[in-house]
Design a protein that fits this description.
The structure holds two protein chains of two kinds. Chain A has four helices and eight strands. Chain A is of the alpha+beta class. Chain A has a single domain (9-169), classed as Alpha-D-Glucose-1,6-Bisphosphate, Chain A, domain 4 (2-Layer Sandwich). An eight-stranded antiparallel sheet of chain A has the order 1-2-8-7-6-5-4-3, with helices on one face. Chain B is mainly alpha-helical. A three-stranded antiparallel sheet of chain B has the order 1-3-2. Classes of the chains: A alpha+beta, B mainly alpha. Chains A and B meet through strand 1, strand 2, helix 1, helix 2 and strand 4 of A and helix 1, helix 2 and helix 6 of B.
Chain lengths: 170, 136
């Protein structure tokens, strides 16, 4: 192994924690300065390249962002306009290169999302915090999040079969 | 900017959706978490649990009832004794749902890594150009 080689960014590990009945916290290190990571979150043409990875099965059709306090955003997913689903809301706090807070207004049960970018030694620790209006809303979001991810259903099926087998074997 | 939902596959999820509510409510109580820990060590009757946690039989029955409804505990009555043991199925399912969400973010962030790398390269190249001048 070449010790001088930079660590692969994919080794940075995404963690998730249900911090309370209403909160989920997701963290990840990025191998770049905060201004660059922030840019990828706030420029639509860049955002579109990573928010809907292939494994989700549904591409992003369009993305509009007015990144300033009080500004709105609108993101549409689908295979064509007729099947498109839109997600929208507004930015309630914008501190360039450091902090973004937005609402998700497509549903009453949707979270307020806070993303912070903390730079250290040229790398950025990203913390994404979702605050749901109620415990039930978060339970629902967790349970419903795989909707529209066919690959993951196959994996889920396998998992359920495994769990079932374990139970029967127990 | 929530994850995507396609209604066409909804029934599959609803069919297998674990009652998360009940489980999280069940886990919100110190005594009930204690009971789960205890049952993790060995099965116990409701009478034994009541004694251990200095509670009335009725009080412990209520707690066990909540845990049972959440699928966290299974009880079985043999003669006059009701024995409780762990039923971890729903906890595992919840953990699996959380893990799936983590994987979604992980997939996103792997793509985001690529964007970040590209922007860094571009910034470097632009920096060289500026130093080299005279391009504005």
């Amino acid at each position: 192994m070449d010790a001088r080689r930079e660590p692969a960014p994919t080794n940075s590990g995404t963690t998730i924690e249900r911090k309370s009945e209403r909160e989920l916290v997701i963290t990840r290190m990025f191998n770049g300065p905060a201004r660059i990571v922030y840019e990828a979150w706030t420029r639509p043409e860049l955002f579109m390249r990573w928010w809907a990875p292939k494994s989700t099965g549904v591409p992003m059709l369009s993305c509009e962002m007015d990144v300033r306090t009080g500004g709105g955003y609108r993101v549409a997913f689908g295979h064509d306009d007729s099947s498109a689903m839109a997600f929208f809301g507004k930015y309630i706090e914008v501190i360039p290169n450091s902090r973004l807070v937005w609402t998700n207004e497509e549903s009453e049960d949707a979270a307020v999302t806070t993303v912070t970018f903390e730079e250290k030694d040229g790398r950025t620790r990203l913390v994404l915090h979702e605050l749901y209006p109620s415990k039930e809303a978060l339970d629902e979001a967790i349970a419903g999040m795989d909707d529209g991810m066919p690959e993951q259903f196959e994996q889920l099926d396998e998992l359920l079969v495994t769990l079932g087998a374990n139970l029967r074997g127990a | 900017m929530q994850p995507i939902r396609l209604l066409i596959l909804n029934h599959m999820v609803q069919y297998s959706r674990p009652p998360l509510d009940a489980s999280f409510a069940a886990l919100s109580d110190t005594t009930r978490r204690g009971v789960l820990e205890q049952l993790g060590r060995s099965d116990a009757s409701i009478t034994e649990l009541a004694e251990k946690f200095h509670m009335t039989l009725t009080g412990m029955k209520k707690h066990v009832g909540v845990l049972e409804q959440a699928g966290l505990v299974i009880t079985k009555k043999v003669g006059r004794v009701r024995t409780c043991k762990l039923g971890l199925r729903r906890l595992e399912e919840e953990a699996a749902w959380i893990e799936r969400y983590r994987q979604l973010w992980d997939a996103r962030f792997d793509e985001l890594d690529k964007v970040v790398e590209e922007l860094k390269r571009k910034e470097k190249a632009d920096g060289r150009k500026k130093r080299a001048g005279p391009h504005e």
